[in-house]
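User: I'm curious whether this sequence folds into something compact or stays loose and floppy. Could you predict its structure so I can see for myself?
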Amino acid sequence: MATEEHKAGFVNIVGNPNVGKSTLMNDLVGERVSIITSKAQTTRHRIMGIVNTPDCQIVFSDTPGVLKPRYKLQESMLDFSEGALTDADILLYVTDVVEDPVKNADFLAKVARETIPVLLVINKIDLVKNQQELEEIVTRWRELLPGAEIFPASAREHFNVSNLMARIVELLPLSPPYFGKDALTDKPARFFVTEIIREKILLNYDKEIPYSTEVIVEKFDENDTSIHIMAVIYVERDSQKGILIGKGGSMLKRVGTEARKDIARFFDKSVYLELFVKVEPNWRNRENKLRSFGYIE
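Assistant: Here's the prediction. I'll summarize afterward.
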């Protein structure tokens, strides 16, 4: 197709925590780009997933859930979400059938003032008991975001996602591609290693442990058939280090085994993974550490 007929654009996905933004992103992209757990604050960065066809390129951007910041890390996460309102061609505001529509009303008000196309995705409709309940939810959201097109959907069940995708393609502006046509994401390989390890921490630990950890890949040696990875998991206190490692190293071994399998599947290579745990006191509130960890530019 001629370049002047090619479409391309940035489609940013925003919303509150735990409404299924990452599940929707992965379904739209067709690849597991964002980590998914049932816990809030799973996504910490803006993560791009790129869909390419001969005549269009869609650059999806998954963002952290909108929340009231309690420490500097969450301030950076909110900056990622609010930044997504300023550089999108199309905005996907994701909610679900159980959350309070007026939660984080300030952010919602900013979405309502947007002049770009806003597609409101009401996710998890497989949890709705009947059609009347769904219609009541749609009516309330139509009052809150009167300028938005509404798409009831279930990302987990792939319901109505194809129709959403077709509408996105219709709304894309004419443009040459922004990335190579073989690109899947803007993130380097190391980023996905850290995300996979962090996902296993989120799945295996409770309370504050997952939110107090940061993963940094210090070694990533790759050849045609295998990858040797050395990663450090940072925590804020010695007590957290003990819990993370577990008795006789059992918990850290479990995390490493689960992560290694997913990393091998992601890269389609054999993986040798070494994990270490270090204490970095109060890193979530230290600007220099947040900058070194990539949360502040």
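Summary: The first strand starts at residue 7 and ends at 15. Residues 67 and 270 are 39 Å apart (CA to CA).
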